[in-house]
TrEMBL record:
It comes from the Bacteria. Residues 245-366 form the OmpA-like domain. It is found in: Cell outer membrane. This is OmpA family protein. Keywords: Cell outer membrane, Membrane, Signal.
Amino acid sequence: MKQKILLLVCFIAGIGFSQAQGLPTNPEPGKCYVKCITKDEFKEVEETIQTSPAYTTLQVVPATYKTVEERVLVKEASKKFVYVPAVYETVDVPYVKQEGRTDLKVVPASFGNDSRTFEIYPKTSGWEYKVLEDCPSVNKDDCVAACFVEYPAQSRDVSFTTLASDASTNSVPVGEQSATYKKRVIKTPARMDEIEIPAEYTTIKRRVIDTPASTTSTTVPAQYQTVTRTVLDKKGGITTWEEVDCELLDPNVLPIFYELGSARLTPSSKKTIDDTLLPILSDSNVSIEIMSHTDSRGNDDFNQSLSQQRANSVVNYLVSKGISRSRLSARGFGESRLTNRCANGVECSEAQHQRNRRTEFRVLSN
């Protein structure tokens, strides 16, 4: 019972760890998984660029002349002026010797009589006590009577003078006095009579441009060159998990055989690549590293370069089959990773040297 509980705890812990790491949630026992980050994909495009611009060459055609006759001014036209004096005449000019005026006559004020009644004391009323005569009582207060008495208003007539019309004036016009005086005025104004003096001309000969200088042009066409460049075709970055056989994570030797000192792929080597590497790359997004080696014969630096060329030849062949170059890497190790004792100076058979001239591949977790 304790073992079952322990296994359950480990299983749950394993699930939590895989989720935290982003690992596949339902892995199969005995399977390996590689994390593939989709790399940028590139493509080659051809572009035509201008290496030399079009331009124009010019050739000058000189100007030509011709002789022409021309009438020119030798003395400008002018004018002269003749003065004609003014003519006068005598006229009578009227004027006001004494201006007219308006005299004023005073009309005195006139008056009338009128009267008006004024109330000099108002109407009054009130209670008054009156002692009855022949009062039989010894106490006189018993014979007092209260009477309500009313007294009429008192008036007075007042006479006064009224203004019928106020003093005023009447206008009395007095006419103006006129006279005349003699004045000499211009009958015909003075003037200046203008007399034209004509210009004088002569004829001359001169050379003038018949055809202006010009140029003839010749267009030299532009020159172009086609260049091939690599551009981004598809942006990568998507992370996925790909299931692969565990043995593919370790270097696997491909039966690719090269001629001595050559990096050329033989038809049989291409078939090996088609049967081995293409299915892996076509059915998944994994990346593959190509590792090439040489035997120990020859110069070490030459072998290093040769091994890199051999790894490149495999990558180039896969790219020609439609595999993105971003999923492939090529590394040459020269004679640094021999699989047997056949190092420099050691006598070995051709078969032993052949085992070192190998190409390996492995799946990368990128």
